[in-house]
Amino acid sequence: MLTVLYGVILAGERRALTDGHRGSGAIGGWILGTTSLHLLALVMRGLQVGACPVVSQWDSLSLLAWCIAVLQILLVRFSGDRSTLIYSFSLVFLLQIGSASFTLRMSETPERMIDSLTSVHAFSALIGVAGVAIAGIHGALWMLLRNSIKNGRFGFLFIRLSSLEEIARLNRISTGIAATALTLTLLTSIFLNRAYSEFLEPEVVVTMILWGIFGLLALFPRSTGSVIATRAWLSLLGFCGVIFIIGWIAMFGFHSQ
Amino acid sequence: MRINCLALDHKILPLKVREKIVFSHDQAIQFLTEFRQRYQIKDVLLLSTCNRTELYILANNSHEGFGILNSILQKWQTDRDFRVPIQCAAIHSHGASVRRLMRIAAGLESQIIGESEVLGQVRTAKDLSDKAGATGKVMIRLWERALRCGKRVRSETRLGDGALSVAYGVLWIARKIHGSLKGLSFGIIGAGEISELVLKNLDTIEDKKLKILNRSPERAELLASRFGGIAGSLDELAATIQESDVVICSTGSQIPLIKKDELSTVLKERKRSLLLIDLGVPRDIEPDCGNLPQIFLNNLDDIARLIEENLDERRSAIPEALEIVDHEAHRFELWLNGLRSEPALKALRKAMEDACQFELELLKDEVDQETHEKLQVLLPRLVKRVLHKPTEDLRAQGGDLEPRFLKRLEALFQMEEGTESEDSA
Lengths: 257, 425
Hints:
The complex is a heterodimer of chains A (257) and B (425). Chain A has helices spanning 2-18, 29-49, 57-79, 85-103, 116-150, 156-160, 164-191, 196-199, 202-219, 227-252. Chain A starts with a helix and ends in a 5-residue tail after the last helix. The radius of gyration of chain A is 18 Å and the shape is globular. By secondary structure, chain A is an all-alpha fold. Chain B has 425 residues and is of the alpha/beta class. Chain B contains 16 helices and ten strands. In chain B, strand 5, helix 8 (193-202) and strand 6 form a beta-alpha-beta unit. Chain B is elongated. Chain B starts with a strand and ends with a helix. Chains A and B meet through helix 5 and helix 7 of A and helix 7, strand 10 and helix 12 of B.
């Protein structure tokens, strides 16, 4: 049902953009209702498993989708710029489809109980990945808009997106969120007493690299002139890392599972 | 009498070619003077703007008009090193030329449909012809009709609605780069009509910093005092670029004012993005400048393309605007046809008036003073009433009538007048 609701949000946003309404920055009741319902579903699942709902692939993807949706909503509330919401929610929709497809074989998926620290570790990791994904989306949109202006081709993106300055600001904020959340993930991992071999698993290595990149970007938030183009490229690189992580989770689950 | 035009505009030539055939005011006056002397044509109008270079002439017949314009086109192509793709499409016949000038004044031929700057450019074209002594009666009338058409289209239709002008396009791009325009620094290079229009659009922006540079500081100071900025000369160009967020160039310079090498030196000391808008034709900024990473360079064609996407409302007003163009073109044709039959009509009217006068003179001794005075009022009125319908018909059909017929008509009444006078005598 959540997949359908997110699909309706996407269709509504697309129609609003096609009709020329850029949105005021206010989040509609449908979006808030859907994310609230999604939260309720996650809480119920959390209560069912007694921890953060990341015990299976469908749980993980669904929680990641919710994290991205909520972060994007917070960005819209904070900036008043709704022009990029449709792109983040497209990813949310895809993740939710992925999650829904896993629920079909839910009974076959082995579930492992996790403790509170691991819950914090996993949740912060997903918030971090969501931040990287949103930063990547904004980085890509920034580059597309920049090329559109530079080449004098003023198409759909030029008309519908807010401005390079605003998109760069949203990129910086999501970079900061990603860096903070991933730092928390690393700190919690110290106390988890995991085997060293776990740190060498591909999705952990990629997450560490993302932490390094986004940590640096967060430490140097200046984004003027050509520096911002480098930020955009690195954000896009981060987004590729997110795709890899999502793919890994979808195939093998979290490294703890 | 036929009007023909040579039209080289944005529809057939790209910007890099158009900038080769643009005429400065001095060049235009010189060209018009030489043209008038060489071809002995007194009715000439040269409209040279960033979007078009068009030459309107009044020839004795279409054959002569086409021949002259074709030789002018060949000369321009040789002198200015360009080729028109389909040469015959650039020269227009009488009817098309009349309608064309009206469509131009109405903004229907503009890159940005309905833009209002073109009316000022049409006015300037007539001023240039005046200075070259090339404004005959017919061209003045056509020019007046075209201006009237332009004004009517803007006041009676929605073609000019909205703020879709070049200046609006410039600010749209600036907003897409910098977000809010509040507090930005603007450098305006050149103090001509386009710069003034941009400044009018900038007027509503709060806390902006404005610097206006021009070759002649007087004009820059005038605009600076009017719009609240700082005036300067072109020597301050590098410093202005360094401190500005948006630089808008619109000068009549024949060579680029901003070159890539100089710009990259200036940019070493600044990190922010810089929007350069080149509204000059020929271009004021070297196209390579756009390759620098923090530079956004857009020219007139880019802005026209941007606004083209948003012209739906204006496009819906085109049929109404075309009706006005048709009406004004028809009124001009009537006048021009009337001009052809005017000698015949004059002769007819004079013959009738002279006949009345002659009869009145004969009656002078036969009727009393009061009756004679009444007849003096009555007879001209009677002539006017009798001739009204034939005059209107002749004026309307003047273009279709054979010149020989008009000559014959003219001669007929002159002969009758003479004959009558001789008989009476």
